[in-house]
Specification:
The complex is a heterodimer. Chain A is mostly helical. Helix content of chain A is about 70%, strand content about 10%. Chain B is globular, with a radius of gyration of 16 Å. The chains are: A mainly alpha, B alpha+beta.
Chain lengths: ~120, ~160
């Protein structure tokens, strides 16, 4: 079932994102209040780029969003309801991707029929 | 992959999905208008849809059901609110009960579809808006195994 597979993927991304102690810490800080990637980076003994990678993993799991503000990238932590809405919309989006592909197949088949009849 | 863009707006529970199809708007319109063609794409591949009624006009209603791999039946309905031939339509899409008729206590989602002739093909924009997260989950569960809501509640429990 396509949606089950999508949910498995969502769950994988979520488990993967939460499996790391640094990422859990970043998530807690970003939920407490929005802040820039550089101010988050101050808390950890790792490069800015490494922190940025952690933020990207959280972003893919719909746990945070990143927004560019001037020269800074601001990270917002999502409340659980917003996370849930994003996951559901993600599943619905995949349904439309599949519908669009099926529409394209139907159109391609009927074009074939038309040409065969030409 | 014919997808042009897709925008998720979680605060308004809205998805805007844009795709480019290699056919005229009149031909794409037929995919919505003709129930036999609609059946070929409306349901997920493992849950093909059967439309038993499809009154494709303003105020017209549709009744359909999707059939799962183990024969499970997931019935749904449409009601067309507005329609402009080969240009677009707006419709409500909801869950039906075992009798195939709309379930009064679950609000439908509001959907709009518009077609635009562009680059020798058709750009189709579909905007779907849900009322609240609970309704969205129920609507998405339609035609899915019960695992969907279970999986999501398990995910919630983790957070």
């Amino acid at each position: 079932m396509v949606v089950d597979t999508i949910l498995d993927d969502e769950a994988d991304r979520l488990f993967q994102a939460l499996a790391d102690a640094t990422r859990r810490d970043i998530l807690q800080r970003a939920i407490a209040h929005e802040q820039s990637v550089s101010s988050l980076a101050d808390h950890y003994d790792m490069s800015f780029a490494a922190v940025q990678k952690h933020v990207a993993v959280l972003e893919r799991a719909a746990l945070v969003t990143k927004e560019r503000r001037g020269r800074e990238q601001i990270v917002h932590g999502h409340e659980p309801t917003l996370q849930k809405a994003l996951r559901l919309l993600g599943a619905y989006e995949q349904m439309w991707v599949q519908r669009a592909n099926q529409m394209a197949s139907v159109l391609a088949e009927t074009r074939g029929v038309t040409h065969a009849g030409d | 992959m014919p997808v042009i863009s897709s925008k998720k707006d979680p605060a308004n529970l809205t998805l805007e999905f844009v795709t480019q199809l290699d056919a005229t708007p009149e031909r794409v319109w037929e995919l919505w208008e003709d129930p036999r063609q609609l059946e070929k794409w409306w349901g997920p591949s493992a849950y093909p849809a059967t439309f038993v009624r499809h009154d494709f006009e303003v105020g017209g209603e549709s009744r359909y059901f999707m059939t799962g791999p183990e024969g499970q039946i997931a019935p749904g309905w449409w009601r067309i609110e507005s329609l402009d031939k080969a240009k677009g339509l707006t419709f409500a899409n909801g869950i039906a009960g075992e009798d195939g008729e709309p379930m009064p206590d679950i609000a439908p989602m509001a959907a709009s579809m518009s077609l635009e002739s562009i680059d020798g093909g058709t750009r189709m924009t579909v905007i779907s808006r849900f009322t609240d997260p609970e309704q969205m989950q129920k609507l998405l569960d339609m035609g899915m195994e019960e695992g969907m809501s279970q999986a999501l509640s398990q995910i919630d429990a983790l957070l």
